[in-house]
Amino acid sequence: MVITPKNPSESNREYAFRTISENIISLDIEPGSMIGEQEIATMLGLSRTPVHEALLELSKSKIVDILPQKGCLVSMIDSELIREARFLRITVETALVEDACELAKEEDLRLLEDNLELQEFYLVKDPLKLLTLDNEFHEIIYRICNKMQCHYMVSLMSMHFDRVRSLSLHSVKDLKIVSDHRAIFEAIKKKDPAAARAAFQKHMARFELDWNIISREYKKYIAEPSH
Amino acid sequence: MVITPKNPSESNREYAFRTISENIISLDIEPGSMIGEQEIATMLGLSRTPVHEALLELSKSKIVDILPQKGCLVSMIDSELIREARFLRITVETALVEDACELAKEEDLRLLEDNLELQEFYLVKDPLKLLTLDNEFHEIIYRICNKMQCHYMVSLMSMHFDRVRSLSLHSVKDLKIVSDHRAIFEAIKKKDPAAARAAFQKHMARFELDWNIISREYKKYIAEPSH
DNA sequence: TGCAAGTTACTTGTATGCTAGTAGGAAGTA
DNA sequence: TACTTCCTACTAGCATACAAGTAACTTGCA
Q1: Using CA atoms, how far apart are residues B227 and B225, in angstroms rounded to an integer?
Q2: A95/B92 Cβ within 8 A
Q3: Which tens digits make up the pLDDT trace of A168-179?
Q4: Nucleic strand D under 7 Å from the C-beta of B48
Q5: What's the whole-model pTM score?
Q6: Does residue B78 approach strand D to less than 7 Å at its CB?
């Protein structure tokens, strides 16, 4: 478990939530492992209460599963939940990029472009940073469309998604992701909804290929189909 | 505040969450009013802890606003959040009803039809029951498409929406809502995605009219635009 | 050896107590 | 009257204590 210092502006509960989330997404906490409230509380120098509340929030997206009187299970990578997270993102964000063509102001375009330049800069240097920038790029689009509450809901579910992306860093595909983002940006800039939609859907389609490879390579992390 | 008995299968936290939610949606707790953890805990016969956790969850959808060291503010009816909730539902469920045309089995169609018959039965008798049935109708569609996690996320946000619907019960429009549902059902039954999509969008469009009336009639409950 | 009952250690759920921060009113001052 | 300062009452955040349930181990018996 990787522990970063507590940001002074965040509450203990937020600190616990952020730390646990980051470690689950980065796979520093392994899928399928059990984590105890006390254990984490001690590591973070907190009491159980804020840790308990953080785990409660995480359990809402099913990224952890609280088993009462037993413990807290970090969920296995679950293709059904990933499918849902992906469905939600594709559906919502396809609509958003179209709207963004109308709504984006000069200032918004500048934010997107700054983000893109950072993506290009970190492309070879720091793939993990790239994942953060990727998420920020999408967040800017939510902000352009005044849909930040939707963004919160979608990103909670996207954790399932992000965890798989952590497994496929450092790959050639990163290069394509950044150029996808640029294509989406250009379409918004040109106020071309159809092009934006097409670029976005091409972008999200890449994941399907990843998943086929990863689901073979990391079987130990993948949940059995339930039925 | 209306208090129903605790269901034996639910935890104290779930009981608190359900009770508070119901009272906010039904407007038995007024928009803009302050509620204290202790106050609610006493009313429900619980300690502050499960109430605190319930309020925390509600605050994630911004239906309440926790002001640290001050209290918990039940949010005013906020047209921006309603717009977001509505956007999310329309976007997601439009995609779902199309998919449902392929995925719905005989058994699913029976569930939908049973629900519809109840809607028609309660149409004149109990408009509040109708709201519950309405939500259940939509939930069945999520279930048909195996998108229950999405359903959880969307329904959290839909509370903003449901609260406004509570204000417009007993109106002639109820009749149209039920016939809308039947149109959606028939389209799914005939496996006609285009018809399902059209029927659903017609259904959701009704809200716009409601909102215009209600926002004039209940000004005391409506938040000022922030800017 | 194999199995069953009892015990113990450990888990989360919940209650309670303490801390720190807010708001509003009382009292004092010009 | 108008303003400032202090005090009191109240809030949620958090720590801690206890309750209740689980699971694994130990013990005893056949």
Answers
A1: 6
A2: no
A3: 876 656 778 899
A4: yes
A5: 0.94
A6: no
